[in-house]
Design brief:
The protein is mainly beta and about 220 residues long. β2 and β3 form a beta hairpin. The longest helix has 21 residues. The radius of gyration is 25 Å and the shape is globular.
Length: about 220
């Protein structure tokens, strides 16, 4: 077998290096994952199917450390909360002070900026808190995409959700006939309607259709 001349070897090496460089140039770069964060210092979530709302303290991508509160309108219960948001995954635990039980909340944040998941753990008797599906009633900010688009209003006092504005709609009720309300916190507005005459068209994953809330008379603020 004849040896390859040194000049040819150099040409082959140069060609191989050029091919490698081209491959590096055309290789797609991985996009950074969305890093979702909580707006404000509380995350408001609704236990689907009930009026129980949980308010864990939060700061950016951290859930806690701090106090988590569960309230169905009366006799709130409290616990110590810790957890975090990684990309679009959210998980946190609350150790309830009433029964010393641990509630585990796990979920994901959708393209609408709403977190949805399931909570497990022992219930607190007399319906103070029960495990099951949950949905955030606040939108989260996700990498400059979901959760940041559009305008928001702020609910100061819990207000019932209706299917139409201006007092012409029907309020949504759960299986027990109890009105479903937007709890205090930020709520994303639906364009192009936004707000008019103290009625706001809002994103409300806790109801099956269009959602309008009244936030006049000091019940909330809007743009």
């Amino acid at each position: 077998m004849s040896a390859i001349p040194i000049k040819k070897q150099a040409q082959f090496a140069f060609a191989a290096a050029a091919l490698c460089g081209a491959a590096l140039q055309v290789a797609p770069t991985a996009q950074a994952a969305d890093n979702c964060t909580v707006k404000g210092d509380l995350l408001h979530i609704n236990m689907d199917g009930t009026r129980t709302t949980v308010f864990p303290q939060a700061n950016g991508s951290s859930i806690g450390p701090g106090v988590g509160t569960a309230s169905g309108g009366i006799n709130p219960t409290y616990g110590d909360v810790t957890g975090s948001i990684t990309g679009r995954d959210i998980q946190f635990t609350i150790v309830w002070r009433d029964n010393k039980g641990t509630a585990q909340f796990k979920g994901t944040i959708g393209d609408d900026g709403i977190a949805r998941g399931t909570a497990t753990g022992p219930e607190i008797p007399y319906n103070l808190w029960n495990p099951g599906p949950w949905t955030s009633t606040d939108t989260l900010e996700c990498g400059g995409q979901a959760g940041q688009a559009g305008k928001t209003a702020t609910v100061i006092m819990a207000t019932d959700i209706f299917d139409k504005p201006d007092g012409n709609g029907t309020e949504y009720r759960n299986a027990n006939g109890i009105p479903i309300a937007k709890q205090p916190g930020q709520v994303q507005l639906v364009e192009p309607e936004l707000c008019r005459s103290n009625w706001c068209h809002v994103v409300a994953p806790e109801v099956p259709g269009d959602a309008w809330i009244y936030i006049g008379d000091g019940m909330g603020t809007f743009p």
